[in-house]
Structure formats: structure tokens, C-alpha cells
Amino acid sequence: MTSEKPQVASGVSQLDQILGGLQIGDNVVWYDNAGSLAPVFYLNFIKASQSDKKSIIYINFDHSIKTLMERLGPLADYNKLTILDCFTFGKGQGAEIFLKFYEEDESGRACKIITIDEPRNADHVTGAFYGLHKTMKGDVRFVFDSLTGMQELWGGEDQIQKFYSHSCPRLYELNTVAYWVVEKEAHSQRLKANINKIAQVAIDLSLKRGKTYLSVIKAEKRNIEMFNEPFYYWYKGLDVNFDFDKRTQTQIDLGTRLKDIRTNRGLSQTELAKLVGVTSSTISQIESNQIYPSLPALIKMAETLCVKISSFFGEKESVSEQVVFLPSGAVDIQFSNLAKGLIYGKSLTPVEFDSKAIYQKTRQRN
Fold first, then answer.
1. Which tens digits make up the pLDDT trace of 285-298?
2. How far is CA 61 from the centre of its chain?
């Protein structure tokens, strides 16, 4: 019988509540849709690791050391934090402006910075952080600030796939906790699917209509009520707060109203999307209240569904007193469970009326 691995704090208490905490051995992938949402989470992770007096290895590909020091702020003053600088001779190409940091820095901060002189060589980088890990005791924490930055230097997704598929299982066996940052739109679906297979935890961060959302895509060995459900959060400095009650719901539940009217009309999301001139994904996001439609799209949806625009925002129109509906006001409907063209149907009542009465005309077969 194997004992459960101890839990680890992420540094964001409400995230721990969603995930049930991190676990020793976790590889946590952060899909950053905006390219700027992951830092607050890995900085909190570094802060929590420091509170636990754990050794931390930060593998830096995307930022000059000066920029990284400014981002870390007081977190850089920790003698168990080691930064592997893969930027200066990587994206920085050994430029004098980046090398000046080492000549002029007199901050006296406690962290260690090791310059990797061959960051374009994946084996060289891998050997550097595993060699460093051997000198440390206990469960070491890793932050890979950009798998995307690695790909830019290493020449493609095949190299990244090879590196990641070897590194994650090994880091798991070494009882580490590793954060991996990925710019979601910079990689193919194939690579992201392979990443998700290997990772223990995968989290999506997105920015929609000026609001930030977090969704848990994968979390092994955890009891999570909702996967792929976006949680609205906001942050100031390193302080992160979640709105568990509202999540993506708004005071105007336009999405639910649209879905009700569409299904009453007998249209699928794909069919409505074609009629309106948008993608089915757009309709799906509108119905889940992740986005709002543009005004032209909203007008087109109302015309297509034969309802007033106000139907999407208010209560159902009161038509209970009307008992006779003229054929001239009927609208076409579709029967999703029957082949197209087999039956033609018209609804004699408004789409929102709770009656099932319809006028049907069966197609004659030759």
C-alpha cells in the first residue's frame, strides 16, 4: 500500500480550493491565452516555496535578466533560488546590452544566476538543470517560464515534444513540483494534446471582454466538480481573488435565453451559426456567457429566430391571453431527429410560447 504524496501550496488559496492543492510530483501546465496571465501564479508559487524553505530552479528563456529581476522583486533575495539564464545567449544572442547586467549589477541579492552559454542545445540545457538538481535536498520546485520560448530556440514542436515527454516523467519520479508556461495560440492542437496526456495538471488562463478567467482542463487524482468551467478572477500585485458564485454568469443571462429560443426553433448551434454568418464556436461561447455577440450579429440572430431583440434580455413575452394565431404569422421550424426534407413544419405560435401546437405538412414521396 503506497502512502499519499503530501500536498503543496500553490500560493493562491482559492486555486488550492479549486484543485484540492498541488501534489508532490505534479507537472502543472499553464496555457496563457494572453501571454501575460501566468506570471502572477508562478510568482505566488515561488513565494509559497520560499515560505516552505524549498529549493527553486527557474529556467528563463523569455526575459532579459534585468527584466526578470524587476519582476521577481523581493522574491529574488532568497539563497535557495537559482536562475538558469537561457535568454542572454539565446534570444539575446549574447548582445552587449544584456551582458552589461552582469558587469554592473551590485544589488547583492541572495539568489544565484547561472548563464547557459549553449541554450540552443536542448541536451546542454537539460544537463544543466538536472545537474543542479543533484546538488539540492528535498523536493525541489521548478519553473519553466516558457515552453514556447524553448520551441523558438530549439527549432520546432518535435524537439519540444521529445524534451517534454522525457522531462515530465523524470521530474515526477524525482518528487519535484514543476510549473510550465505555454502560450496557447503558439502551438498546434497535436502538441497541446500530447502535453495534456503527460501533465498531471493543466490550466487554461484567458482574457475575455476585459475579464480574466481560469479553467481546469486536467487534474489527476483529484475530485473536481467542474472541468473546463471558467472561473472569473482578478488580481492586484500578487493578490489573486476568485468569484466562485458568479463565474461566467452575468446579470443579463443572454446565453441561456439564446439557447432556449434556438432549441425551440429546432436549430442546432451549427445551423444558427451558418444563418447568422458566424462560427459554431461563437454561438457556443455566447450561449455559455463567455462572450457577447456584436450588435449586427445580435440583430441577425433576432431576425433569424423571428423574435424581438428584447427577447434575449428580458422575461418571456406574455402571450398567454392570445388563443388564436394566424397562419400568416407562422414561422418555419426544423425537426432535429428527422431527416431534412421529410417533414416541413411551421410554428403557429411565437417561438417563446409554451404550446406544442404546430402545422405540419408531410412531403409526398413518389
1. 788 776 778 888 88
2. 21
Q: Give the residue ranges of DSSP H helices in 222-335.
A: 254-265, 269-276, 280-287, 295-305
Among 120-129, 141-150, 215-224, the range scoring the smallest mean pLDDT is 215-224
CATH topology of domain 254-362: 434 Repressor (Amino-terminal Domain) (1.10.260)
Cell of 174: 524525482
CA 306 vs CA 38, 86, 108, 150, 239: distances in Å: 44, 59, 70, 52, 47
Amino acid identity at 357: A
- Distance (Å, rounded) from C-alpha 356 to C-alpha 130? 68
Contact 265, 302 (CB under 8 A): no
Domain ranges in the chain?
A: 7-243, 254-362
Please, what is the average pLDDT of the chain?
84
CA distance to 206, 250, 269, 338, per residue, from 291 (Å): 12, 11, 15, 32
DSSP notation for 74-132: GGG--TTEEEEE-STTTTTTT-HHHHHHHHH-----SSEEEE-S-TT-HHHHHHHHHHH
- Mean per-residue pLDDT, 84-113: 91
Per DSSP, the three-state class of 51 is helix
277: left (phi over 0), alpha (psi -120 to 50) or beta: left
- Grid cell listed for 141: 520546485
Where residue 352 falls among pLDDT bands split at 50, 70, 90? Answer: low
DSSP 8-class letter at 160: H
Between strands 177-183 and 27-32, the pairing is parallel
Which pLDDT band, with edges at 50, 70 and 90, does 356 fall under? Answer: very low
Query: Is the pLDDT at 335 greater than 90, yes or no?
Result: no
What pLDDT is attached to residue 174? 94
Predicted local distance difference test score (pLDDT) of residue 362: 45
CA atoms within 13 A on the CB side of 150: 24
Task: Name the CATH superfamily, with its identifier, for domain 7-243.
Answer: P-loop containing nucleotide triphosphate hydrolases (3.40.50.300)
SS3 362: strand
